[in-house]
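User: What would this chain look like folded?
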Amino acid sequence: ALKLLLSENKLSLFNTSVMKGIYALVIFSLFTTVYAQCPDIESIHKEHLKETSKEKPKYYVSSQSRTGYLASDKTYEMSFVAQPGNDYRLSTKLAAGASGSLNIEVYEYTNDKKIVNGAESYKKEKKTLTTSDGSQSIEFSTDKVRKIFVAVTLTGGDKKKPSCVGVLIEDKKSTKLGL
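Assistant: Here's the prediction, encoded as structure tokens.
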């Protein structure tokens, strides 16, 4: 009788630990579903990529593209490296179901040489290249390696719920002109 009682206790302990594991798995699944990550960049910019897929020569999605959550009236800053001999196109878009509007500032830092009292000094200064309201893509080329910064600001969105934003960077080889 004692052996039977001990084996029943082991069985009930096993069932209790299995049930705790199942409950933990269910709660974890619900938590990760509610707080999921932003969709990938291709999903957010699906219509744009479909429209531009027939262009010749074609732009390609850069691995430097980013998605992330952004709160209303906050600014997200990112950087990427632009290589010589390439054309670039920057686009921003809110994910489906998000509200608000996006403003973009594209800039770089330059080291400006200053001479003060006969001594040379260098000062890092922010140089704004362009700004946009986010409705149009920004296209540019570069003749040297440059570290480009992009500041994206969300205005007018839901103050309590962050919105998912996608910054799409596309690139292609520049068209060579001349003989």
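Residues 2-34 form the longest helix (33 residues). If you want, I can go into more detail on any region.
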